[in-house]
Design goal:
heterodimer; A: mainly alpha; 3-stranded mixed beta sheet; 8 helices; about 10% strand; B: mainly alpha; 14 helices
Chain lengths: ~350, ~400
């Protein structure tokens, strides 16, 4: 890989890492694209007729189901969306109230977990409000499915070559033509209302205000997971109709902002820190080496000085001894010479006496 | 000293080759089914459980257990602990093979594996932690390969290239630690996006830190564990230099493991306190959590400490085995056991025999490659031409 490419990617990683970091700053609330569309589902109006399922199947060209859409016995078992079904209506028995129906499909989050989790940007939030999927770049890692708190994206597991992630598209192609989403158009009871998200919130509030006995004072999706484009109102706690009420109001990008923000810091600081540790340990080794060398030098110097001293002492001692020896020798020689002279003189006297 | 090439097992049909061969043949058959009929034909994955054992074991555990590469080389080259030098090459080789096999395993799990380079070269999903994981693993695999090449070049007798690479050791090591820090922690961070799916005892904003810290222990323990096996099976390939330092490496790593496990236990407890999740300890998942924390963190921490105090190599090796199992247990908990805890048991995931078969197959390929390389290249011994040249 070219160094420039690498640096470019690192830069890209850093930019990507800091953007949600900024978005995650205190007080952040993303209201979605201005004028973006959504759907409001009214649980109190739904009768479980499955007309929306049939319409969805038709407009998305999905394969025919095992049991026909007018067969309502399927409502007796809990179902979820799958790669051939983008929406399902489930029946929930509420004590003292009887059956309640809820439609399930992609909620088209304002800041979708799937889109922020996708590492090729195959999933994106479009300005129309729909979260759309581009199969032409999808690698098939299925992190979007792990990330989605509503368990919506599904996968074509039996497709060996071209498996796709499948989910409700809010009928984005139809929206582009100015049409309603298939399910909304098909609903005979106006349980589904299409409009801009802001309008929908107003409508929901009006209904709740007008019929306080009929509705709970809660628009599900107004704040859940940072807000969704598809919202729900109901007369029963949402947890009883299969919607989790413990998801919190933090959007997915906020959840991962911390770890992502740490990336450039690690990339920037670690080399400095590790380089520093390396330098310190190396310097320590060097100092230790120098100290060892100095100590050895000192020891050698000391030893040689001592040796020299001993030598000179020995030499001077030897000198003294030599001098003394010489003196002794000289003395000896002198004495010998003198004694020899004396002897000569005596002899001479004797001989002269003899001569005379 | 051992010389490469001529002292392998005598017959081709020894137990090791027969077992490994069988596993590989079975693995290849499953491979054909997987790529011919699709992921659904061989796995129990479904719309609720998109990630199974191929991610939980092959990726998460594989990457953690291959962390010996960066920890050992950092100890030796950055922290200047020269006595660990003999452990660097086996650790780097394990890491390189580990990461290479993680990528191979990923090819099974991805729906369109040939698009694996897309996030790096085609369209960057920079808001994704998986993008970071992918980018780091890609670069780190390259770094590990370069770090490993000196052994290869020595074996092939390419002196100039070898010396050129050796010059870059420090830079490569630092790059390796940076990349490892990032992707090891990002594997934990992958799950920060799903607080509603991961049990509160495991979910924590500190998950990236947990994964990073435990990867250090995993790497060091794996070096100890693997060296004890190599000692038995590949003793003939080890030179005096390696054997002389082996015990001191085990002691040093054991000490480090004990300390880090202590710290890890501490920060995990802090995580429970931070989320005020104490009451979950009394539940079924609480028992699993306690087994993980007491049996596979606190206990090996203690055993390591005793082993180091008594200079008991056997005990340290046992603590290493316990730690390695503990890391696997932890990654399984995060990715499978405590993940999707909100689903009824009928919708939970359990791997098929074929999924397990592929994981076993990949580990076996790793062991075979490790054996092939260590019985030929200068891994456990210094090449005679480059003795003491480090």
């Amino acid at each position: 890989m070219l160094r420039r490419t690498f640096l470019g990617m690192l830069g890209a990683a850093c930019v990507g890492a800091t953007t949600p970091g900024k978005a995650g700053a205190a007080g952040h609330e993303f209201k979605g694209y201005p004028g973006s569309k959504g759907v409001l589902f009214d649980e109190t109006r739904c009768i479980g007729c499955r007309k929306c399922e049939a319409a969805c199947n038709k407009v998305n060209d999905l394969p025919a189901p095992e049991k026909k859409f007018d067969d309502l016995s399927v409502l007796d078992t809990k179902r979820r969306t799958d790669s051939k079904t983008f929406t399902v209506v489930n029946k929930y028995e509420i004590e003292g109230k009887g059956s309640v129906f809820r439609k399930n499909q992609c909620n088209h989050c304002l800041e979708p977990a799937c889109a922020s989790a996708c590492f090729v940007k195959a999933l994106t939030k479009s300005p129309s409000g729909a979260v759309v999927y581009d199969a032409s770049v999808c690698v098939g890692c299925r992190y979007c499915m792990v990330a989605c708190p509503f368990e919506i994206p599904t996968y074509e597991y039996d497709e060996p070559l071209t498996p796709r992630v499948r989910k409700c598209t809010m009928c984005a192609p139809r929206l582009a033509e100015g049409k309603l989403p298939g399910c909304v158009e098909a609903c005979p009871k106006e349980a589904l209302t299409f409009g801009t998200r802001d309008e929908l919130i107003k409508i929901a509030r009006q209904r709740i205000e007008r019929y306080p006995d009929r509705y709970l004072d809660h628009i599900y999706g107004e704040h859940e997971m940072g807000g969704t484009s598809w919202m729900y109102i109901s007369g029963d706690p949402f947890s009883k109709t299969g919607l989790r009420e413990d998801l919190g109001t933090k959007s997915a990008p906020e959840l991962t902002a911390g770890p992502l923000a740490a990336v450039p810091m690690v990339a920037g600081l670690w080399p400095v820190l590790l380089g520093g540790i390396y330098a310190v340990s190396k310097r320590k080794d060097k100092v230790a080496d120098e100290e060892r060398k100095d100590a050895v030098d000192n020891a050698i110097a000391k030893a040689s000085a001592e040796a020299e001293q001993t030598l000179s002492e020995a030499l001077s001692k030897a000198d003294v001894a030599n001098k003394r020896k010489i003196e002794v020798e000289v003395k000896k020689a002198v004495e010998e010479a003198l004694s020899a002279k004396d002897a000569d003189e005596e002899n001479g006297e004797e001989s002269s006496e003899e001569e005379s | 000293m051992a010389t490469p090439g001529n002292n392998g097992p005598k017959s081709v049909f020894n137990t090791f080759n027969l077992v490994a061969g069988t596993i590989i043949v079975i693995g290849l058959i499953i491979t054909v089914i997987r790529f011919y009929k699709g992921i659904g034909a061989v796995t129990n994955l479904d719309d609720n459980n998109p990630w199974g054992i191929w991610i939980g074991f092959d990726l998460l555990c594989g990457v953690a257990l291959a962390a010996g590469g960066y920890t050992t080389s950092a100890a030796c080259y950055i922290f200047g602990l020269k006595r660990y030098h003999s452990a660097v090459r086996p650790a780097l080789l394990t890491a390189f093979l580990g990461y290479a096999l993680v990528v191979v395993a990923l090819l099974y799990d991805l729906g369109r594996p040939w698009r694996l380079p897309y996030p790096i070269f085609y369209q960057h999903g920079t808001t994704s932690l998986l993008f970071e994981v992918g980018l780091c693993v890609c670069i780190y695999l390259t770094v590990l390969f370069i770090e490993f090449t000196p052994a290869l070049f020595e074996w092939l007798g390419m002196k100039k290239l070898r010396n050129f690479v050796v010059k870059g050791t420090l830079a490569l090591t630092i790059l390796g630690v940076v990349l490892s820090t990032l992707h090891q922690s990002s594997l934990g961070a992958l799950y920060t996006i799903a607080p509603s799916k991961l049990h509160p005892l495991w979910y924590s904003p500190y998950m990236p830190l947990y994964f990073f810290v435990s990867s250090i222990v995993a790497g060091l323990s794996m070096v100890i564990f693997e060296s004890s096996i190599s000692h038995k099976k590949l003793h003939r390939m080890m030179d005096e230099e390696y054997l002389k330092h082996h015990d001191s490496v085990v002691l040093g790593f054991g000490k480090a493991c004990s300390l880090i496990l202590f710290g890890y236990f501490f920060i995990k407890t802090m995580g429970v306190a931070y989320g005020n999740n104490w009451h979950y300890l009394a539940s079924g998942y609480g028992v699993v959590f306690l087994i993980e924390m007491l049996g596979f963190v606190a206990l090996p921490c203690f055993l390591y400490a005793v082993g180091v105090r008594d200079k008991n190599i056997k005990l340290i090796q046992r603590a290493a085995v316990l730690t390695v199992i503990g890391i696997v247990f932890n990654r399984f908990n995060v990715s499978m056991i405590a993940f999707n805890y909100q689903l009824p048991s009928s919708e939970r995931y359990f791997p098929t025999m074929m999924e397990i078969g592929i994981s076993v197959f990949i580990v076996t390929v790793g062991v075979v490659l490790f054996r092939f390389i260590t019985t030929r290249m200068p891994i456990f011994f210094e090449h005679p031409d480059y003795k003491g040249e480090h």
